[in-house]
Amino acid sequence: MPGLPAQAVSGNTKTAYGMRLLRDLRRDRWLYMLLVPGVLYFLLFKYVPMFGVLIAFQDYQPFSGVAGSRWVGFKHFETFFTDPWFWKLFRNTILLALYNLLFFFPLPILFALMLNEVRQELFKRTVQTIVYIPHFISWVVVVGIVYVLLSAEGGLVNELLASVGLEKIHFLMRTDWFRSLITSQVVWKETGWGTIIFLAALAGVDPQLYEAARIDGANRWQQLWNITLPALKTTIVILLILRLGHFLDSGFEQIFLMLHSINRDVGEVFDTYVYTVGVQQGQFSYSTAVGLFKSVVGLILVMAANKLAKRMGEEGVY
């Protein structure tokens, strides 16, 4: 505004913005009320617990508390990185994460593409319902089913093998089967549920694009390649970035239930190790340092993947 100092203009702009914000909040107050449960959830269960990472740099004593415990700097990180178990845990966690990324992540996309091609709505909805159900089954039940099916003594699979004259396979005792079993359980339990977001993205594709493509002579494969997949590209990139943030989260409950003394060398991961040393052995500071290391790695992977996605022309998550 001519004739007014820059500070006055800035102050007037801020005042106008504040009044507009208050007016919008008052007008849409009931919509903003819907945010309250989600905000409280993240504050109470995500941000407030971050204060606990301080004990990773202390010799934490429960009776002394955070304020009274002695600070030791990076002592627990040094202990962890020099522990012979570190590389074994790192290898096991990375391999399981790669198995899930390579074999599980693409399956919901492929399944969503196949369901999208189904034209009989009753059949489509029936299949969707059936493949969603395993998501709601707890890991305890899933692992119990695996034991019933694959147990060497009385397991259904081994009984079938024996009935046709083949040798029984000790699936649950052989270390070379462990990662395949873990990945197969994840695929069976979560593939159907993972299709939901991709089907939602496909529902937003304009049907006129397919109609125009058919008029131009495009077959089903060409429509899939030139219309459907580009429509899913942004969703795939965003979900991949978010998944990399949990790259080292192998799933505590599932792996803990499958672990025993024979397969521990290939099955022990960061999640189960934190439980063992933190809860069972009471090394709270050490286990917190391990968990913080996992979180930092996840943060680095998300930032790197997001930057790479933006360089490739995608939106990213921020």
Summary, kept brief:
The chain crosses the membrane at residues 30-57, 94-115, 127-150, 224-242, 284-305. With 318 residues, the protein is an all-alpha fold.
What characteristics describe this protein?
single chain; 318 residues; mainly alpha; MetI-like fold; two-stranded antiparallel ribbon; 17 helices
Description:
The model has no long low-confidence stretch (mean pLDDT 87). A two-stranded antiparallel ribbon has the order 1-2. The chain has a domain of 178 residues: MetI-like fold. Helix 8 packs across helix 11. The protein is mostly helical and 318 residues long. It is built from 17 helices and 2 strands.
Biggest pleated-sheet summary = 2 strands, antiparallel
Overall body shape: flat
Mean pLDDT across all amino acids? 87
Poorly predicted runs are none
Radius of gyration: 26 Å
Question: Can you tell me the CATH architecture of the domain at 83-138 and 190-311?
Answer: Orthogonal Bundle
**H and E order:** HHHEHEHHHHHHHHHHHHH
Q: What would CATH call the class of the domain at 83-138 and 190-311?
A: Mainly Alpha
Corresponding CATH superfamily of the domain at 83-138 and 190-311: MetI-like
Question: Main sheet: which strands, in order across?
Answer: 1-2
- Class computed from helices, strands and strand pairing: mainly alpha
Q: How many alpha or pi helices? A: 17
Strand % is under 5%
